């Protein structure tokens, strides 16, 4: 499959370098130098993955990530010069799937792009081959694993690719307890050091979307000292 990658970066040198490396790896690359131009490309083209700089003019990477997530479902990789955990957590909470801190090796960008594409699109093909149930239902929730759509009481809820993978993974085995490392592997295909905080952010964001009262969680439960489980709800 030929993937189309959007790269949005206001630094012309970085933009040209990342574009060159991605194109050399066989990707079709669309380039934008500000958030508004990137948003126009998202609406006009079929984008398979977006690489977004956080500090862009007209619309920053955080705002663009949030805007994309309102309508589109694609992996998002943030490029940031900020190293504070709060900025990384904010990006993940808004719907980003991965982040890299500047300065970076362009080869690592290519590797991260490839890894995120495999995680997101391999999940879909694996489901088709294994002929798993198209609809996963739990209480008021209905997860369509063919169209990648979550509904609650018939109303669609927009979730990120990582949130989808976490929810689908747990909904297949209600009542089973998963460690954070197991959930990390479900999202990434392998365990990454220091990714457990990101899992907590994804869980928190899911609760905000699916729970009537996120502080009194009905679906996703903490299991002290172990991890998380999703309750069996008829």
Please provide a written account of the structure.
The chain has 234 residues and is of the alpha/beta class. It has helices at 12-24, 35-44, 61-69, 85-94, 106-130, 161-171, 180-188, 196-210; strands at 4-8, 28-32, 49-53, 76-80, 98-101, 135-138, 141-144, 149-152, 155-157, 178-179, 220-223, 227-230. The chain folds into two domains: 4-124, Rossmann fold (3-Layer(aba) Sandwich); 132-230, Arc Repressor Mutant, subunit A, CATH 1.10.10. The protein has a five-stranded parallel sheet with strand order 2-1-3-4-5, sandwiched between helices. The longest helix is centred in the middle third of the chain and has 25 residues, at 106-130. Residues 125-131 have low confidence and may be disordered.
